[in-house]
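Alpha/beta hydrolase
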Amino acid sequence: MTATRLSLLALAASATLAGCSGGTPAPADGDGARPARMFGQIPFHACTLDGGNAATRVEAQCATFEVPENPDAPEGRKIGLNIAWLPADSNDGGTADPVFFLAGGPGQAATELAAQINNGLREVRRQRDIVLVDQRGTGSSNPLTCTDADGEAMELDALTAPDDAALDAYVGRCLAGLEDRADPRFYTTANAIRDLDTVRAALGAEQVNLVGGSYGTRVAQQYAMAYPQHTRSIVLDGVAPNDLVVGGEFAHTFEDALSLQSKQCAQDAACRERFPTDLQAQLRGVLSTLQTTPAPVTYRDPTTGAQRDGVVTPDTVTGLAFLFSYAPQTASLLPLILDEAAQGRYGPLMSLSQLMYSNVGGQMTRGMQWSVICAEDAGRYREDGRVADTILGPGVASMFFGACRTWPTGTPPANHTAALQSEVPALLMSGELDPVTPPAYAERVLAGLPNGRHLVFKGQGHGTFALGCAPKLLAQFIESTDAKALDATCLDAMRPVPPFISFNGWSP
């Protein structure tokens, strides 16, 4: 198992839009000395959430709010939660119950997705304040980043194959870098929802509306279970049931997504004629060829345009196919890329692989992800016999949980895998082609939510809250708290993205 696959698995647990750009909060003025603006008991200052370019910058109010690292030792070490507030557009200010957006991963930071959140919740923001809290261990909330002795970020080499000893050594160096500033045992979902409720109380909000994506849907469900009196409504996008072993079912859900993509191609005359071979069979054929003989390739660097040399391995192809499957716009390229590879032309595949990994690199805080999955998921994983016949195979889960051999783990509450049984108004959303949180997961959660409704977005992948008319539906739901009364016929206008039949695009 290569580190390339380890990189894709870090993304596989992620919870929001594919290819989201990161960002860091910066003062809106040169010295950051703007007057404080109070929200409840928390003083905020003007800031810009910077996604890296003008199009992804969001003007906001920022604050740091201290909480105990160990909630059972309130006099011990404190950590600062990074909070961003996107004030409501209304001249009268926001309503009494704001919206909290819960990012995915585990390991993503909400403030680093501000541009995507601001877009997807633009209709909601007309009347309501949006609050982004970087979950403890992510973003600027005492992040559990792996650094060396000089404080420089450590990344696993995506071109090498770490064995257990190499991974254990990497984890050991990561822990050494955290020794003076964090105890990984306390960076769990249970402590995160306690943080959220502490922030809610400090803001003076009696109730909040929760919008969670992927792993963030787990956080939302567990908050609603622990604090039902403070939960006005929940929106779950890419639903992860509480009893799901995050990372344990990727091999099966990816296989199902590929099957759906194959059927989509078969139903399109141009795609069926251009790519008569079943997508899964084509992928298996390319993998079989590379398993015998990895392919040297000269390709164009996607960022500089320079010619580079590399080697395409089975994991290169599997990783790219998996990352592509998150969004229909990239999934539509897969038949063409695999067809090129089957003809021995690996240049486009290698260029796109490098582009995808450069885009997703650094989106997850690896240490925080381990703190969650090692405490809450790894011990519950049981391999089933069917996984051996899948494209990802049994090595995926074992690699995903590999760090848990040595990573310190907290103890989750006894009921952390219990299904949410609640009268809370709930809107659940799924992408039909989602490779990690398929619609069937949302149906399981919906069974315990009599005031809930599940919307499936045809032809879409992982993360739907910003697509089409979804922003309008979200706003209508949060204002009315009546999911069943929503007129969702606007979703019927959504169509699958046609597969590319050449590099010029799909058939007109």
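thats it. The longest helix spans residues 250-266. The radius of gyration is 22 Å. bye
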